[in-house]
Amino acid sequence: MSNVDPKEIAKFEAIADNWWDPEGEFKPLHDINPLRLNYINQRTALADQAVLDVGCGGGILSEGLAFRGAKVTGIDLGAANLQAARLHSEQQNLDINYQDIAVEELARQQAGQFDVVTCMEMLEHVPDPSAIVQACATLAKPGGHVFFSTINRNPKSYLMAIVGAEYVMKLVPKGTHEYLKFIKPSELSAWARAAGLGVNSLHGMSVNPVTMEFKISNDVGVNYFLYCSKSN
């Protein structure tokens, strides 16, 4: 439990009632969710696979994975987030196993149990992201797939993800991100390899500021995905 920032947990729990408002504080997550799901599903089958969603929040990605036929476990350390996730999944008649547990603890309990592990928009909110990467690798089965997404650390990402998104366009609440917690792709790739994962591909996610349409791109200057796999 040492790899937790209580301020980060409190930040998201304070607006947990709005997880499923597509026009609320979590609108960007709703907007990019189809893109995230397609990115994952194009690289590995989801139907009937055991999938773990690390840092699931209110369950936006978890539900999308479940709708594609995955057997989903979602974990988070925010009780209010999990309450919102459970309530909404019940309304959608989805059987998702939500747990209030740290990923490191789950790795000690269920090593090698998941076909797919996702950790999206979460690494930039913890004190030691490399430990999260190690735990995700431990939880994946041999031959399993691990997906990360986070924000690069450079002047462009500061301008786009903090100044632009939080203060100018007000896409997310002020204070959502801290620049020094952003992670360079080279750092994340190194942590993944140190955890025994093979790095398969790196892609960026860009947005048209006029249409607010998101797409996968080769520009990893701000938001990016890292797709990894675990050797047999």
Number of strands: 8
The SS-based structural class is alpha/beta
Mean pLDDT: 94
**Annotation field: number of helices:** 8
Largest sheet: 8 strands, mixed
Structural account:
The chain has helices at residues 6-13, 27-41, 60-67, 79-91, 103-109, 129-139, 155-168, 185-194, and strands at 50-54, 71-75, 97-99, 114-120, 140-151, 197-207, 214-217, 223-230. The protein has 232 residues and is an alpha/beta fold. Strands 3-2-1-4-5-8-6-7 form an 8-stranded mixed β-sheet. The longest helix is centred in the first third of the chain and has 15 residues, at 27-41. It is globular.
Summarize the helices and strands and which ones pair or pack.
Layout: H1 6-13, H2 27-41, E1 50-54, H3 60-67, E2 71-75, H4 79-91, E3 97-99, H5 103-109, E4 114-120, H6 129-139, E5 140-151, H7 155-168, H8 185-194, E6 197-207, E7 214-217, E8 223-230
Parallel strand pairs: 1-2, 1-4, 2-3, 4-5
Antiparallel strand pairs: 5-8, 6-7, 6-8
Brief account:
The protein contains 8 helices and 8 strands.
Main features:
about 230 residues, alpha/beta, 8-stranded mixed sheet, about 25% strand
